[in-house]
Request: fold
Amino acid sequence: MTDQAILPAGYGQAVIPADAAPAPPSALFIFGGGGDLTKRLLMPSLYNLAHEGVLDSDFSIVGVDHIERSEEDYRAFLTASVQDLAAAGHEIKEPIWNWLAERIGYVAGDFEDPQTYERIRQRLAERMASKGDANAVFYFAVAPRFFGPIATRLGAAGLMQEGENAFRRIVVEKPFGNDIASARALNAHLLSVGTERQIYRIDHFLGKETVQNVMAFRFGNGIFEPIWNRDHVEHVQITAAETVGVEKRGRFYDATGALRDMVPNHMFQLLAMTAMEPPNSFDADAVRTEKAKVIEAVRRIRKSDAPSYVVRGQYRAGTVVGNHVSDYRREPDVAPNSQTETYVAMKCFVDNWRWNGVPFYIRTGKSLAVRRTEIAIHFKRAPGVLFRDRPDCALAPNVLVINVQPDEGISLRFAAKVPGRRVRLSEVDMDFRYADYFKAAPSTGYETLIYDCLSGDPTLFQRADNIEAGWAAVDPILQASADGLLDIHGYVAGTSGPVMAEVLLAQDGFQWLPLEQGHIA
Ligand code: BG6
Reply:
C-alpha cells in the first residue's frame, strides 16, 4: 500500500489543491456505469478526489447501465477495474477505496425505458428523506447516440426540475455533435430539458493544469500582456502530437478523423486561452464569453480556399518509439481505402483588433514521433541593423513555449553572445518546469472537472455558443474534405507528419518547431 493517488499511464499533474473545501453533497448518476470511460477515468478520478478529502460524506455514486446485477456485484466490478488501473507503484489505499465503495449503488435499466428513470426518481426521494437533499448530477458516459434519448427521458420524468436542496445537472461527454448542424440540434435538445446553467459540456483539455495556467501566466504577470498582440507576435504554433494510433477505436475514428476529433474542441480551447482578452473577473460567464469571442473571430474560410489553409495526413506503416505500427488502413475497423485523416495542420486567423494578420498554425496527429502538446508564441525579430554585417549573427525570433504535456513548463528562447572576442550570437533557452517547483499529486485531468461540476462551477466547461462557434469555424473544411477538395497525404508513422505540413508554413516563411528534437532545444 502507498498513499499515492491513481495515475493512469500518460496523465499529468494534479489540479485540486489539497485545501479545497468538499463539494456539496450529491448523488452522481453515471449513465454507462459499466463502460470504459467509467472504469478508465471516472472511477480513478473519484478515488483521487476521495483521497484529497474533497467529497462530502453524503456523496454517492450510482451506476446506471443495462446489465442486470446486484449493487454488490457492481462494487466488485469497479473494485477490480480500479485495481487493474493502478499503475506501477500506485496502489489503492484500502480505507479510501472502502469509503468510496460504501457510497456506490447501481440502477439496472435500459436508457430508453421510463422505468429506469422511475427508479432514479425513487432513489432521489429516498435520498431526500434520509440525507435532506436530492442533489443530482447525471453524467452521460455513453455513446453519443444516447445523449438525446437520455436527456429526453430525464426531462419527461421531471428529473431536471430543481428545487430547494435539489440541484440537477447534466454532464455531456465529447463528441458533442459531428458538425455544426448536429451540434446545434443537440444544444437545442438539451436546452429544451434544462437551462444552460444545468448543462456541463466536457472538454477534458480544460481539466489540464497547464491549460488553466495559460490564464494565470498571461494575466498574473505584468510583462507579457503588453507584447501579446499583432505588434510583437509574428505567429503562433499550437501542437498536439500523439504517439498513439487509433488503438481499438477504429470504428469511431474512421468516421471521425483528426479534424473533428481534436480541432473544434481541444485545439480551439488552447487557441482561445492563448488569444482571449482578459476577462473582467473569474466568473464563469466572464471567462467563457471572452473565449467564445475568440472562437467566433476565427476566420470562416471559403470551402474552395481550404487547400491553402489545411493539410490532411494519414499514417503509413512505421516505427513509433521503438514499436512497429501498421498502416492506418490496416488498423482494425478501418476501411481499406479510408480517406480519413489521422493528422491535420491548418492556418487560422483570429480576425479581431489584437490579432489581425497574425497566423495561428495548428497541428495534431496520431502515430507521430513524440507525445507533446504545446503552444509556441513566435515573436517578431529585433531590428537587425547592429548585426547585419556579421555572418555569425543571424537574428532568430524569440519563442515562448508553453508545454502543456507531458513535460509541463514554460521556456523562453533568446539570443546570447557566445563568449569570446568576436561577436557571435547563439540561441539559448530559459526553462521553467513545474516539477521543479511544485509537488502536485498525480491526476487524470478529470478530477477538477468532476469537482467543479459537483460544486456548481461551469467555468471550465463549454457553453453552447462556444461549441457551435468551433464547429462553424471548421465547417467549410469538413465540406471541402467531403467534396474531395483536400488531398490526403501519407506520412510514415513515427515522424513529424506529412511534408506538406512543412510546406504550409514554409510558404509563409516559417518553420514548425521540430517535434523529434524536444521543445525549443
Ligand atoms: C480525445 C480524443 O478527446 O483526446 C483522442 O478523442 C485523443 O483521440 C485524446 O487521443 C487526447 O487527449 P490527451 O489528454 O491524451 O492529450
Notes: The radius of gyration is 24 Å. The first strand starts at residue 27 and ends at 31. The first helix runs from residue 36 to 52.
